[in-house]
Amino acid sequence: MKYCVVIIDGAAGLPLPERGGKSCLELADIPNLDAMAREGVVGLARTVPPGMEPSSAGACMSVLGYDPKVYYRGRSAIEARAMDIAIGEGEVVFRCNLVGVRDGKMRSYSAGYISSQEAKELISALNEKLSDDSVRFYPSVSYRNILKLRGHEDALSAHCTPPHDIPDKAVAEFLPKGKGSEILRELMKRSEAVLQGHPINLSRQSRGDIPATTIWLFWGSGQVPEMPAFKQLYGLGAALTSGVDLLRGLGKMAGMKVLDIAGVTDGLDNDYAAQAAGALKALEEHDLVVVHIEAPDEAAHAGSIDDKVEAIERIDREVIRRLRSYQGGDLRLLAMPDHPTPIKIRTHSPEPVPFLLWGKGFEPNGAEKFTEAAAKGTGLLIADGYKIMGRLIED
C-alpha cells in the first residue's frame, strides 16, 4: 500500500454573498475531488486545537499526524530549521516579512510578492547596515525571511501581529507591544532608512510594483522541541514537497525526505504538474508522500476570489487527477486544507476543515461533493485533528 497526503492550504472558507452564498470550494470546478468524495469518506477535522492560534504551523502539524499541543512552540523556529539556521542558547528567531506600507496603512504584507532574488538583495543591505553580534537577517522565499537575535530572549514576550491580519489598516496600532518589544520596533524603524531609495525598490517603483518600505517582525520563537520521526510513529518512510519553508521545516523535524522539485513555488505560478510528477516518482522509494500547495492560501490573503478558485481547480486538474490515476499499486489518499482562510477576513480561522479519505478500504459515507457543507452533512468529526493520519494508514 502507498499513501499520499495533499494539503490544499487555506482552501476552506465561508459562503460569499457576492457569489450566491457559495464558498470557493463550492465555486470551484473540481470533478476529481468530487468523484473521490462520492467514493470515499468525507468529514470534518479540527486541526487547530481550542485556544491555539490558527496558524499553518500548528494546523499542518496536525495534518502530518503530530499533536500541536505537544510539539508546537512557534513558527519561526520551524522555518529556521528548513533553512538550517541553528538556534543556540540565548538566541531567538522571528519571521521578518518585507512589507509595503503607504500612508501609514498596510498596503501589502508581501511587498507585492517581491521576488526571492530581490528580497535577497534587500536582506543583504539590511545585514550590511543593521547586523552586529546580536542581530542577523537571513533571506528565504520571496517576502518571507528570518531575523535571529542573540541576548534578547525577552523579545518573545512581545505581542506581535502578523501583517496579513491587518490589510489596509493603520499599522501604528499593530506594532509590537509590551515587554521585549523595544528591539523589534527599533529594527523595524531603522529598516525604513535602509530600504528607502534602495535600487531594488526604485526599480520596483518604476515598474509600478509595490516597494518594500519596511520589515515586519512577528511569530517569534526559541528552540523547537524534538519530534519523533514519522517512521518511528507510523512505521512508514515519508517524503514531502512544498514551496514554503514552514512545511520543509516540519518535514525535516519529522525525519521526512524533503523533495527538491523544479518549479514548485508558493503562488499561482506553481508548476502543479511537476509537483505531482515528483510526488509520484517519490512513491517509488517511499511509502508516503506529502504534497503541500500554498497557492489557495496566498490568494485568500490577497482577497482574490478568482485566484483562490483557480488555484483549487488547478490542484484538482493537475495534481488530484494524476494521483487518482496512480498505476503503482494500491494508493490511499488524504486530501484536506490545513485551516480555513476566508476571503472576508483575509486571514486564517480556527474552524474544522473538510477532509477526504479515498482508496482501498474506505467506503462511501454519503458525501456527493468535496465542500465544507458536504463534509458537515456526513456528521463525521475528528475532534483531535492530528489523529487523521491514523485514519489514513490504519489497516
Q: What is the number of helices? A: 15
Would you identify the CATH architecture of the largest domain? 3-Layer(aba) Sandwich
- Estimated radius of gyration: 21 Å
User: Would you identify the regions where 5 or more consecutive residues have pLDDT less than 50?
Assistant: none
For the record, the count of structural domains works out to: 2
Helix content estimate: 25-40%
Largest sheet: 8 strands, mixed
User: What form results from the Cα inertia axes?
Assistant: globular
CATH-derived topology of the largest domain: Alkaline Phosphatase, subunit A
How much of the residues is beta strand, in percent? 15-25%
Distance between the termini: 10 Å
Mean pLDDT: 96
CATH class of the largest domain: Alpha Beta
Going across the major beta sheet, what is the strand order? 9-8-10-1-11-12-2-13
Q: List how many beta strands DSSP finds.
A: 13
Tell me what the structure shows.
This protein is an alpha/beta fold. It has helices at 24-27, 31-39, 56-63, 68-71, 75-82, 116-130, 181-195, 199-206, 230-234, 245-253, 272-282, 295-301, 305-324, 372-377, 388-393; strands at 2-8, 41-45, 91-102, 105-108, 135-139, 145-150, 214-221, 238-241, 257-258, 288-293, 331-336, 353-358, 381-382. The strands form 2 sheets. Strands 9-8-10-1-11-12-2-13 form an 8-stranded mixed β-sheet, with helices on both faces. Strands 3, 4, 5, 6 and 7 form a 5-stranded antiparallel β-sheet that branches. α10 (245-253) links the parallel β8 (238-241) and β9. The longest helix is centred in the last third of the chain and has 20 residues, at 305-324.
